[in-house]
């Protein structure tokens, strides 16, 4: 819907609208961090040059994350269009890009602002997130917690996850919590995949609910110099790619990034945050934006190590 030209937003310049978005996002971050009301005027003081508040940098960075979070939600909703009369509605299994495995298992949660893990139980889990039963949800929308899952090797897997929604479990007591996995160490990624594979196979005697459906794999291959250039974007947390088939905004996938000879490669979790259809001649392709679901420090270390390795090998 286009804004009316005689409305306040319709009269605002692009610069004014951008400033409003920054102010709104900063105000949201301050609400979340303080747990109480913060006025727009107080938030605006943080944006003034020379503000001496020691928390300014953290809040500004957090506000950028809020804008990204809001934009992703808007794009995801826009992508989930209702089917037309000529387009039959897809089944739940077709719409879901991750195999969701029903399982009741004990896990641990570390709530925001706390250090001591609390007991919880998995209700189901997928490559992209989980549903969890807890006594009481102790976080708000937009907050991040740590999900601790037992690994197959005896070592726990720590996954950063974002609150999606919660609900009362009237018949059994307690509350349900749905989370989306947002960041995991690359050393834990293979272990999570092994856990999901084991759970999927144990839940299906013929073993057909399997590896290929745990997640979508995206193979991205580059010439040596192209890969070096792409690694700079990857280290910053994102990458733009062109693919022949559409992806789903919001889905998490496994990206295999390598040279054509596969001599140098990285395996990373990535989430689709934007997508646009483009035409190249008679062909229709899709430009997608990926955000990597690993700690930023680890991405920087991994990409720098690969660049050094490629330099030593002459590629």
TrEMBL record:
Q: Which residues form a coiled coil?
A: none
**InterPro entries, A to Z:** PilZ_domain
Q: Name one GO molecular function term.
A: cyclic-di-GMP binding
Top-rank lineage group of the source organism:
Bacteria
* Segments crossing the lipid bilayer: none
Q: Which residues form the PilZ domain?
A: 94-195, 214-307
Please list which residues make up the signal peptide: none
UniProt protein name = PilZ domain-containing protein
- According to its UniProt entry, this protein's organism is Halioglobus maricola
